[in-house]
Amino acid sequence: MWKRFSNLLHLPVFIPSIIIIVSLAILCIIFPTEMKNNLNIVKYFISDYFGWFYVLSVSLFIIFLLLVSGSRLGDIKLGGDDEKPEYSFISWFSMLFASGMGIGLMYFGVAEPISHYAFPILDSNSDIEKTKNAILISFYHWGIHAWAIYAVMGLALAYFGFRYKLPLTIRSGFYPILKEHSNKLCGNIIDIIALFSTVFGISTSLGFGALQINAGLTHLGFVAEQSIGTQIILIVSIMFIVAISSFVGIAKGMKKISEINLLMAFILLIAIVILGPTVFLLSAFTENIGYYVRNLIDLSFTTFAYDESKKEWISSWTILYWAWWVSWAPFVGLFIAKISRGRSVREFILGVLFIPSLFNFIWMSVFGNSAILVNRDSNLVDIISNTSILLFKFLESYPLSSILSIIALIIIALFFITSADSGVHVINSISSKGSNTSTPQHSTFWIILMISISCSLLYSGGLEALQTMTLIITLPFCIIMLFLCIGVWKGLLVDNQYFSKKFTYSSRYWKTTNWREQLNKIIVDFTELDVKNFLKSVAKPAFHLVSLELSSYSIKAKINSDNKTFIEIVIPQSNKHDFIYGIRCSNKTQGKFEPITYFSDGRNGYDVKFMHKEELITDILRQYDLYLNLIKDDKHALKTSIE
Q: Do residues 115 and 421 make contact, with C-beta atoms less than 8 angstroms apart?
């Protein structure tokens, strides 16, 4: 049984990961308070001394992604040049959104704007400014910065996995840097960190999700009270559905659930817009977007270095968010990579950065502005500390509140299913060194492990300790992600150079009658003496024949040469730059020489070593014809005329 189970596992990653996961989980279960206190000390140390590093790193991720997408490198496909996307755009968007942060929007869509409104961190002299700044900070935490973290990880994995045919694991992103060492100890360590970060992230999310669903069920009267028994039943039920979905595969299970989930989220969103002050919400969204764009650069680099009183806020909010998104990056990034095969690098970056962010902005704007309006009558700020129940209290202010709350509960449950489902696929991939052939036994093992960890931590009160531990690991992982950017950049540059390499220019003149000579020139490099002989026996006669023929048209041509390193034909023009077609001896690499053309207008030359005399004459005439056409067109006067 063990042999069959372990066949597809990468044991150097699987065994250490299981030992670490089980050991740390047991410590959090047996000593929840002590672990939480000790880990908090480390967390606050990281926030105080490395908070600037998180802020700078995430901003650098955005700059890197925009540079890549705006360059020629963005044209490169995540897969073969002729591959088509595996999923439709809507399915792709649904899955990446549902796996990324959908549940967070349900949890914080009301809570975060209300919190920033009640306790403003930016200078606000009026209620209007407090409202605008509350939405602005929410946009900042849930916008392109968060998705840039996922995009960097997903791009690295998809690019090296589908373009270079490397295993779909995080170690593959280090191949340009580590080379063969990416398959040894260094690569194993990277995958171990990713694996237990993913397992812990999903396990803690399951626990907190069960708390929120339980709170919603209690609020609606479906259960009498919040209890550990109900929460365990919820976790087991959710993971049972995850097991069914993972068995049928991403294409059938995750895809369908994600599309249903996104549709229901749209229904809830539209209901709030229609039942609320519709025109105000639409106007507020438009203004919120403009306010966000206007303040984006300033926010991206804000660390409150000059205001010590705000250091605690940025540690508890921005840095905590960036750390949490980074901790989810192995899990979400790897899943995004798995569903993005066949898309171009540019399409991937722009899609992942802006489309989910836009939906997040709409959600935060609608729910945030609506909650601040509702707060004037319902005092939502009084229950800010009870985040699990805040959404349902907010929905009480609307007609059909019970129906809206039931829809919200279903969405929350579906978001947890999609997150856990994508997590199982990712864990299988990491633990099997990128294999796509994991068995139901593997998925069942990880599902049972996460159920056990989540339920045990809920029972013991150790969820917060495990969550804190997950956040601590993000500091080294943030460094890993910066190196991933370097690896992707190097890989893309090599890729672009490789596939943009052209045939030698003069090979277009090849004839089948002298193919042996052509083969010799391909295999045997030209020496400096070979170039000298080419200039003497091929170029010089060709140039003289052209010069002689031009003289019959009363056109004087001049030939310059040192009989060793260059030869050129010059055709003077009045008030225009002279026409020059030259060939020089170029030493591009040590010991390798080539006869390369050059021109008076500075255009790039090319190797002409494969040409014979007649072919070289033809090329001179082609260039001269181009030159005459250019100087006749006044549009090119700035380039061709001389004063």
A: no
pLDDT digits (tens, 9 = 90+) for 316-365: 899 988 988 888 888 788 878 888 888 999 999 999 999 889 989 999 99
If one compares 641 and 369, the residue with the highest pLDDT of the two is 369
Q: Report residue 581: phi and psi, to 5°.
A: -125, 110
| Cβ–Cβ under 8 Å, residues 391 and 107 | yes
The CA distance from 561 to 510, in Å, is 27
* Range 423-451 burial, b when 16+ CB lie within 10 A, else e: bbbbbbbbbbbbbeebeeebbebbbebbb
CA distance 223 to 237: 16
Q: How far is CA 506 from the centre of its chain?
A: 41
Interatomic CA distance for residues 120 and 130, integer angstroms: 6
Residue 189 Cα distances to 194, 434, 480, angstroms: 9, 15, 11
Report the percentage of the chain scoring pLDDT > 70: 87
Q: What is the DSSP string of 412-479?
A: HHHHHHHHHHHHHHHHHHHHTTT-S---HHHHHHHHHHHHHHHHHHHHHT-HHHHHHHHHHTHHHHHH
For residue 301, give the H/E element and its range: none
Q: What is the DSSP string of 259-277?
A: HHHHHHHHHHHHHHHHHS-
**312 vs 604: which has the higher pLDDT:** 312
Do 557 and 550 touch, CB atoms closer than 8 A? yes
Residues in the chain: 643
pLDDT tens digits for range 246-262:
666 555 556 677 778 77
Rounded-to-10 torsion of CA 264, 258, 234, 115: -60
Structure tokens at 520: 């010799």
Q: For residue 167, which of 483, 431, 446 has the smallest C-alpha distance?
A: 431
CB-count exposure of residue 309 (10 Å: 0-12, 13-18, 19+)? exposed
Distances (CA, A) of 25 to 201, 422, 423, 470: 12, 22, 18, 11
Q: Hey, how many other C-beta atoms are within 10 angstroms of the C-beta on 638?
A: 7
Residue 491 and residue 494: Cα distance in Å, rounded? 5
Tell me: pLDDT of 388 over 70.
Answer: yes
The tokens describing 389, both together, are 């129940």
User: What is each CA distance from 85 to 58, 89, 344, 571, in whole angstroms?
Assistant: 28, 8, 9, 54
Contact 159, 73 (CB under 8 A): no
Q: What angle do CA 204, 205, 211 make, to 5 degrees?
A: 95
